[in-house]
Structure formats: structure tokens, C-alpha cells
Design a protein that fits this description.
It holds the Pfam family NIL. The chain is of the alpha/beta class and 327 residues long. Helix content is 33%, strand content 30%.
């Protein structure tokens, strides 16, 4: 749905040049929720703005739903952008318009007739849970309600892709959770492909099926979340499942084990202990839900050295677990 190849964007000033995005490749599949995680200044916002061509890249290509946007002239971009919705960190609502008026504005600019606008606005406000606030003004809304208006406006023209620019960073944790639930519901009900940027690992954990960590304009790692969890040394895995436990235990083999899917909730460690008649110590770890996928990561201590535990570790691998190098 979104394909980016060799994307590069440089900002120039009297003080010199700053490379904001440096040769990024990205593929977001249809129906994915893809999170780009990074600190302020990593290049996340510039990357997002290049997707809908609010920023023209210096090099590379951006293709959305089969249409290469980087090959379009300015006047051709306007109708192409209607296929891409965007929600903003600070809502960007029109203070002089009501909730319904803000949502209707997105339909006005695309030429939707008045009668059709009215029914579509009612449909959208019901979808985001704001029917009773249709006549309220932005100043009368909470932060979460304002963001719901922003989401309704962003999907008004029935885009296939939704971009989210730190949409929850200005909200409290409870409101953040409600907005993430809404985005996930829209993803599933409408088939929306969502590309979001965030500096919060909790956002990635809550709704993202794929993710990338961005640093200094480049991706340090990227891919499906369940695959990244299985990669040795993955920064994302450490962030989602921090294992704050000793890496060495006298007289034991210490090993990190990652599982996903059905095995995450299976009595895998109990079966391991029974099958090999060993005491399995869980030094750290947990089993959690990542988007719609169950995943678990543990640091285990097995009695004896690596040779003593070779068969036990092979058993875990046969059950689909990713087993790190024993310590």
C-alpha cells in the first residue's frame, strides 16, 4: 500500500545542511498498522510529510496504492492527497466551526454535495462516538474529543491510508488508550492502512503490526513486530519486553527465549520442566498482547552448563521459540 525507496530529504540554511531523512526504504502492506518510533529530531515527521508530499524529497520515490506521488506535478497532487488522511498532534481544528463543521470541511474541499455531506458527517460522528457533540465548538471539547474530531475529518473522504503524526502525545494515558482503540477499530472495520509516528514504545505495543526504529534519519531496524522480537539484539524487543535480570547465574545456563502466537499462552515452560526433569527459573519476562498477537519473552536459568541443556534448548526451538545464545 505504501512503498518508499531511497528516500532522502535535506534542509538547507545559512548555517549549513541537515539531512532529515537519509536513504530510507519502507514497505507498508495493505491493512497494516506500521509504527515509526524514534526520539525528537530522528526524522520521523519529515518522513511522514514526504508520504503525502507536503515535503518533496530530494531523492527517492513514494508510491501509495500503486500511484507514484513523487512523479506527480503540484496540480496533480491535490486529488492524490484525498486518498491519504492525516491526523495531527495538536488537532489543527478550525475554532470558528462546530464539530460537524470541522468534519464537513474535509468534504467541502473535495466537492461533495451538501446533502451528501450532511449524511456523511452524521455517519462519521457516530463512528468516532461524537454524535451528541456535533454542535459543540473545539474550545468546549476535551483533548480526546478534539482528536476524535481530527480522526473523523481525516477519514471523511474515505482514504485508503491514514497518517498519524504523534496523535496521542498530547493526551493523558487513559485518553491515549481510547484513541488507540479507536484507530485499531477503524483499521479493522474500514480496512485502513495506518502509518504512525511516535516516541512512545507503548503505542507500538498497543496497536502496531510492524515497526521501525528511526535514528539520525535512518532506520536502525524495521519489520513485523513478531519477527523483530525474534531477532538477536533487537532494540525493539528490549523496549517491548525489558529483561531486567542478571545475565549470568552461577551453575546455570542463562538464555533468552521469545515466543509468539499460540505458544505464548501454552504451558511451554512447565512442559519443558516435566519432559527434562529440570527446575526452570524465570529470571524476568512476561506474556503480553501486541496488537492482536500474543507474545512472550523470558530470561531463563536452567541448571548445568550449555552442553547439559542442549536437548532442552532444542526442544524449545522445535516448539517455535527463538532461543538466544546461552550465557
Amino acid at each position: 500500500m505504501i512503498e518508499i525507496s531511497g528516500l532522502r530529504k535535506t534542509y538547507r540554511s545559512r548555517r549549513g545542511s541537515v539531512v532529515a531523512v537519509d536513504g530510507v526504504d519502507l514497505a507498508v502492506g495493505e491493512g497494516d498498522v506500521y509504527g515509526v518510533l524514534g526520539r525528537s529530531g530522528a526524522g520521523k515527521s519529515t518522513l511522514l510529510r514526504c508520504v503525502n508530499m507536503l515535503e518533496r524529497p530530494d531523492a527517492g520515490t513514494v508510491t501509495v496504492d500503486g500511484l507514484e506521488l513523487t512523479g506527480l506535478r503540484t496540480r496533480e497532487l491535490r486529488p492524490a492527497r484525498h486518498r491519504i488522511g492525516m491526523i495531527h498532534q495538536h488537532f489543527a481544528l478550525l475554532s470558528s466551526r462546530t464539530v460537524a463543521g470541522n468534519v464537513a470541511f474535509a468534504l467541502e474541499v473535495t466537492g461533495v454535495p451538501r446533502a451528501e455531506r450532511k449524511s456523511r458527517v452524521a455517519e462519521l460522528l457516530d463512528l468516532v462516538g461524537l454524535t451528541e457533540r456535533a454542535d459543540a465548538y473545539p474550545a468546549q471539547l476535551s483533548g480526546g474529543q478534539k482528536q476524535r474530531v481530527g480522526i473523523a475529518r481525516a477519514i471523511a473522504a474515505r482514504p485508503k491510508v491514514l497518517l498519524s503524526d504523534e496523535a496521542t502525545s498530547a493526551l493523558d494515558p487513559e485518553t491515549t488508550d481510547s484513541i488507540l482503540r479507536l484507530l485499531l477499530d477503524l483499521n479493522r472495520r474500514l480496512g485502513l492502512t495506518i502509518l504512525l509516528i511516535t516516541h512512545e514504545m507503548a503505542v507500538v505495543k498497543r496497536i502496531c503490526t510492524s515497526a521501525a526504529i528511526m535514528r539520525d534519519g535512518r532506520f536502525a531496524e524495521s519489520g513485523p513486530v513478531t519477527e523483530l522480537l525474534q531477532q538477536p539484539g533487537s532494540e525493539l524487543a528490549r523496549g517491548l519486553f525489558p529483561l531486567e535480570a542478571p545475565a549470568e547465574v552461577p551453575g546455570a545456563t542463562v538464555v533468552d527465549v521469545t515466543v509468539s502466537g499460540e505458544e505464548a499462552d501454552a504451558p511451554l515452560l512447565a512442559e519443558l520442566a516435566r519432559r527434562f526433569d529440570i527446575d526452570v527459573r524465570i529470571l524476568a519476562g512476561s506474556v503480553e498482547t501486541l496488537a492482536a498477537t500474543r507474545a512472550g519473552r523470558w530470561r531463563l536459568a536452567l541448571p548445568g552448563d550449555a552442553d547439559d541443556n542442549r536437548e532442552a534448548l532444542d526442544y524449545l526451538r522445535k516448539r517455535g521459540a527463538r532461543v538466544g545464545e546461552p550465557a
